[in-house]
Automatic annotation (TrEMBL):
Residue ranges of the TM segments: 15-41, 264-288, 308-334, 373-393
Subcellular location: Cell membrane
Superkingdom field: Bacteria
Family classification: Belongs to the ABC-4 integral membrane protein family. LolC/E subfamily.
GO CC, alphabetical: plasma membrane protein complex
ABC3 transporter permease C-terminal domain ranges (all copies): 267-400
Keywords in alphabetical order: Cell membrane, Lipoprotein, Membrane, Transmembrane, Transmembrane helix, Transport
The name this protein goes by in its record: Lipoprotein-releasing ABC transporter permease subunit
Keyword Metal-binding: no
Domain MacB-like periplasmic core residue range list: 24-231
Pfam families per record: FtsX (PF02687), MacB_PCD (PF12704)
InterPro entries in alphabetical order: ABC3_permease_C, Lipoprotein-release_system, LolCE_TM, MacB_PCD
Topology class, membrane: Multi-pass membrane protein
């Protein structure tokens, strides 16, 4: 009751009330900001990981010493390895992709139609055309952003130019060939949608002069985090000399940078909550100074030092608890509507926030991790409680005689 009365400031205590209000707002914004930023960074990492692993495979097997001309048999053996979902032989090379609106570099990958249908990011996101009869045709499938850049649609022809062409007496001539577009897909990652070109495996072998051989085999695991334990089984299951690398090795720099950035952001944004907790200390110290007369009277009426300390701990902790709860609610609401908020701000400012060309993704993701959210809430509560201890201890140590000497 006493703590509640101290929180409801009278006219002459307005300044203390303002400091308490700033402390509340600071903790609320600090907690909300931490939750939102951590959720967005988790979502960003998760979306990138799902896109990268959804099209590139969790492990890559490449031949050693001899061409991979037995890829069908190797892929069949790898399909039987525990933990392998499926193995996808492919032929890969770079080419210049040209259309009516320009020419751009592309990564051309020859795959079997049955394997392409097992890639949900491609098979389930065909925006125009179809993958039916992909193996029997000499057509290609491209991403939406590449189609926009080239100015083509389904049925139009694009030209692929590869530097690895025919060998003539005058040297190697570039290989130039036109292919009709049979499907346009949208993965949702701008880099992939503007780069990848899929063609039938046999056509890819002919185009890149790899008749009867494959560049490598992409291995998709049921558990991407278990690739380290699977390496020996995969190398043994291949039945031939091969070099095996996993997604963590191929993307170690990228994901390490994301992890470092995430940890640094957490430490920096924690300072917001810390500053708000310091505001609680200053506000509570001023309240103790102002309530010296009340404390002295309570002590003379029989209140113990522990009771006085509890009054001021409850007063300060109430600000932290309510601010933390409000911050959690605000952070949760923003995370659930982060893409809508981004679109609204983009419309309001007439600028493009979270550009797909810069951040690779076409939408702003947010993934609230339960453990992280609980950590943020508990940290804010602990800092708020610790901030009240010193002013409450000062209040409990106040000597009633000194406080009332000049009354």
């Amino acid at each position: 009751m006493i703590a509640g009365r101290y929180l409801r400031a009278r006219r002459r205590e307005t300044f203390i009330s303002v400091i308490a209000g700033f402390s509340f707002v600071g903790i609320m914004l600090g907690v909300a900001t931490l939750i939102i930023v951590m959720a967005v960074m988790n979502g960003f990492r998760g979306e990138l990981l799902s896109k990268i692993l959804g099209i590139n495979g969790h492990m890559l097997l490449q031949p050693i010493d001899s061409p991979l001309d037995d890829f069908d048999a190797v892929a069949a053996r790898l399909d039987n390895v525990d933990g392998v979902r499926f193995a996808m032989p492919f032929v890969e090379g770079q080419a210049l992709v040209s259309g009516p609106s320009g020419a751009f570099g592309g990564l051309v990958r020859g795959v079997r139609a049955s394997d392409l249908r097992q890639l949900p990011l491609v098979a389930e996101n065909v925006r125009a055309g179809t993958l039916d009869g992909f193996d029997e045709s000499t057509s290609i499938a491209i991403g939406t952003r590449m189609a926009q850049q080239l100015g083509v649609t389904v049925g139009d022809t694009v030209t692929l130019v590869s530097p690895k062409g025919n060998v003539t007496p005058l040297g190697v001539t570039p290989r130039v060939k036109g292919y009709p577009v049979t499907a346009i897909f949208e993965i949702g990652m701008s880099e992939y949608d503007s780069t990848f070109v899929f063609m039938p495996l046999e056509e890819g072998q002919r185009y890149f002069n790899q008749d009867g051989a494959a560049t490598g085999i992409e291995i998709f695991a049921t558990d991407p985090d278990a690739v380290g334990e699977m390496r020996i089984a995969v190398e043994g299951g291949a039945g031939r000399p091969a070099f095996v690398s996993d997604w963590r090795q191929r993307n170690v720099t990228f994901f390490s940078a994301l992890e470092v950035e995430r940890n640094v952001m957490f430490l920096i944004l924690t300072l917001i909550v810390l500053v708000a907790a310091l505001n609680i200390i200053s506000g509570m110290t001023m309240l103790v100074k102002d309530k010296g007369h009340d404390i002295a009277i309570l002590r003379t009426m029989g209140a113990t030092r522990g009771a006085i300390m509890r009054v001021f701990v409850i007063t300060g902790a109430s600000i932290g608890v309510v601010g933390t709860i409000a911050g959690f609610v605000l952070g949760f609401v923003v995370c659930q509507n982060v893409e809508t908020i981004r679109q609204f701000i983009s419309w309001l400012t007439r600028t493009e926030l979270f550009s797909p060309e810069l951040y690779f993704l076409s939408r702003l993701p947010a993934d609230m991790d339960t453990g992280e959210t609980i950590t943020v809430v508990l940290m804010a509560l602990v800092l708020s409680l610790l901030a009240t201890l010193y002013p409450a201890w000062r209040a409990a140590r106040l000597d009633p005689v000194e406080a009332l000497r000049y009354e």
